[in-house]
Write a structure and sequence with these properties.
27% of the residues lie in helices and 29% in strands. The protein has 250 residues and is α+β, with helices and mostly antiparallel strands. It folds into two domains: 72 residues, Arc Repressor Mutant, subunit A (Orthogonal Bundle); 149 residues, Chorismate lyase-like (Chorismate lyase), CATH 3.40.1410.10. The chain has a six-stranded antiparallel sheet with strand order 4-5-6-9-8-7. Strands 1-2 form a two-stranded antiparallel ribbon. Strand 5 and strand 6 form a beta hairpin. The longest helix has 18 residues. It is globular. The mean pLDDT is 87.
Length: 250
């Protein structure tokens, strides 16, 4: 039996892209209502099952909302958000979407011991080392984000971690190239950091810095990367639209 060229996930991704393109081409100043699912599935060229799955995701993310008995509508407030927490993209993409020209500078690659917090987050032993990967991101030449990634040394399969100094893509791509493992979801803590915590934060102005501390997992729930991202929120203004789950009849 031949393997299908287009896998179900590929079709869903392409459907999402097509639907977002359709929304972007709408004149939202006149109409924010989407066509009925039956009509929209014909326009996009996919089944209603595939379309409904994508619509469900977009509704969860706040891109669209549904009114019972009235239809599906584009959430124009969401379209005004430049840097969104969900789904999360690469910092260069977030910087560009916020209206700036991105640039990244690799500051350091080093092998070091893991403290207890890293051992617990990465599920590694006390004797296992990690690779530290430091980067500074710039927006129109101004520092806007300092990032530290921690990866278990065993993931490198004996490769020299200093290859990261010349690797042209984010570390997730490097891990995939080495192991075939894909980072597909993360768990994030939102914290506030002061400049005194890291010498590299002296690049930023005198003010608290947003700290996003995340553990990044593959589909098998194996932690691959712990990321600590220090963000200047004067430049990258994160927003979030959340769906409220409230039972009004309790």
């Amino acid at each position: 039996m031949n393997t299908p060229i287009i896998k179900p996930q590929d079709l869903k991704t392409r459907t999402r892209e097509a639907l977002l393109n359709y929304i972007n081409e709408m004149d939202l100043s006149k109409n924010v209502k989407l066509p009925r699912e039956e009509q929209l599935s014909e326009i996009i060229g996919v089944s209603r099952v595939t379309l409904r799955s994508v619509l469900d995701e977009l509704a969860t993310e706040g891109v669209i909302f549904r009114k019972h008995g009235k239809g599906t509508f584009v959430n124009t407030t969401h379209l005004g958000i430049k840097a969104n927490f969900n789904p999360v993209g690469h910092f260069s993409t977030l910087i560009r979407s916020s209206g700036y020209e991105p640039k990244v500078e690799i500051l350091k690659v080093a092998v070091q011991d893991a403290d207890e917090e890293l051992q617990d987050s990465l599920q590694i032993g006390a004797d296992e080392k990690v690779v530290l990967y430091q980067k500074m991101y710039f927006a129109d030449g101004k520092p806007c984000a300092f990032c530290e990634d921690y990866v278990p040394l065993h993931i490198f399969n004996g490769k020299d971690p200093n290859e990261l100094l010349t690797f042209p893509k984010p570390i997730f791509h490097y891990i995939f190239q080495l192991t075939g493992k894909k980072v597909t979801w993360d768990k994030v803590e939102l914290l506030v950091s002061n400049r005194e915590e890291k010498s590299e934060l002296s690049y930023f102005e005198e003010k608290p810095i947003l700290l996003l501390r995340s553990v990044n997992y593959d589909d098998d729930e194996e932690p691959l990367v712990v990321a600590e991202e220090y963000v200047d929120t004067d430049i990258l203004k994160f927003s979030m639209i959340r769906k409220r789950l409230i039972n009004y009849f309790e």
